[in-house]
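Worked example 4.2. Below are the chains of a multi-component assembly; read each line carefully before continuing.
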Amino acid sequence: MIFSIWRQRLTRFDRKLVAALALLVLSSFLLPLQQAAGSRLVVSSGDNILFVAPLNQDQQFELSGPLGSTKLQISNGAVRVLSSPCPQKICIGMGKVSRNGELLACVPNRLVIRIEGKSTDRESGYDLLSR
Amino acid sequence: MFGRPQLVFLLLLLVAGLAWLRLPGDEQRVRTALIMGTLVEIRLAGDPQQFNPAIDAAFAEMSRVEKLFSSQLAESDVSQLSFSTEPFQVTEESAALLQRGRQIARQSDGAFDMSLGALKQLWGVETENPQVPSAEQLQQALAGVGPEALQIEGRTVSKSNPHLQIDLGGIAKGYAVDRALEILRRAGVTSAAVNAGGDIGLLGSREDGKPWRIGIQHPRKQDELLTTLILTDRAVVTSGDYERFFEKDGVRYHHIFDPRSGYPARDCQSVTVVAADVASADALATAAFVLGPQQGLQLLEQLPQVEGLLVAADGTLHRTSGLAALEP
Amino acid sequence: MTCSAVNSAELEQVRRRVFLALFIALAVALHTFEALLPNPLPWFRIGLANILALTALYIYGLRALWIVSLARILVGSLILGTLFSPGFLLSLSGGLLATLLMSLGYRLWQPKIGPVGVSVLGALGHVSGQLLIAWLLIIRHPSIWMLLPFFLLFALISGMVNGLAADLLIKFLLGHPAFLRLRNLAGGNYS
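Applying the procedure described above to all three chains together yields the following structure tokens:
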């Protein structure tokens, strides 16, 4: 019955239009999925999230902690600490991090920088890193 | 469609709900704190409103354990025991942990040792001014050290040598993670992971019912994994010479010492141990690291429910017989 | 007929006005009826009122479409007491975009396009317009666009249902003696 309605009540053009629009609608379901992908960087201090940024855009930024301002750099999908007001500069010595679950921390300046992975990482990669 | 303001409000709720679902590893579900000089990360599934108090309690418990066993705090059980020259009454909890530590010390022929406080201070690997001590200094620091250095009777602990300094570095962090997991379990959490600077304790499986996947760091290549372990309700600890070290005259001195020589153990690059609880895994990883690939493997092999992956100094991998079952 | 003295063009105009008023009244009734309908998914409205807008379009042309759509939104909101509320803004923006798209589709592809095609365009325009305004004015959160696919899918289905209903109504009305002249005007265009 639905088929006969389809044939009788819709013009030929209507059928094409509806099919095209249906395709458009279905493809729109894929849109948010794509947006969710991509690793990001989350900076927190204590329980507060200070900053979230995608890893695929090169940029530099400064974050302030109790000691002063810590400068971070994102380049080629990796994050590193450029400069820090802390005495030992261990955070700078920690180098670059880029993988899901990896951390940089500046303990004196109370900053924790964590990489959160793509959702697909959960299937192919790992949840936690033992090191 | 949006006929009434209530509907707009409902829409807001739906959007919030979707946003919450959409973000992987949502902020609420991973929380970090700085405890015991390392970064502690707790991740769990479920309603953050409900479980945030549980996470707070778990962090608080870890801080309590830190206060009990820290050698930096003068009032801790460990510090008081170190400074007392006579038999000392510790808390029941400390006595129990010392007992467990001593058992592993015996099992490993003294490779795991809780009486290396003086030695660790001497080297100062984790301080600003590390140094390579002289043979004489080492001899002094190692006096009386060994698995029988501590006699534990009930809550009374006596030291074979009054100058012996206690250091629970190889077991206290793991114990703190065990305690945190226990607190979470009691709060009704069924899926959680606690990671204290590489000491990982897992409660149940992931929130989607699949087992946790734990990546094991390659000791020499920072961007590589040795393997991935697939685990539920287990503890994983990796000890490596790359974690904390200093270099002097081109030689790398790291923080895991061989009680026989007083020098950093040289036979392994890293050891990963899987065990039922984090404290044991922590102590066994240290023990196996010191023993080296052959003897270390033997030690892990003979213990039930314990698996291990050892990387020898030459980079070769040594697996316990049951480890392959945990790999993908 | 009692009006035989009046010239037929004037009669046609009066008839047109009366029917447009009737369409608007019916559209408002459906609009109100739908708002009162208990609905498991509150913001999924079928948009039954659009049936009348489509009928007006196919019987009296583009201007009639705009008159029925706008009047329906204004009067309908007045009756529901949502005039100038956020809900009204959403309704208006949805209605405007829907009518715009319907006009465009009709203008570009008439006579190939039937009521179902126009209706589907309108329904998709309606949800898009609403979400756009909701995003601009109320919820400035990108995740609102994650709702769009679900809304679009529902709009596609409801648009087809409305289009079919409008198609039947237009057929019935054109068969009615009151529209005889119009049917003759339309000729083979609508069969």
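Take a moment to check your reading of the output against the notes. The longest helix of chain B spans residues 48-69. Chain B has nine helices and 15 strands.
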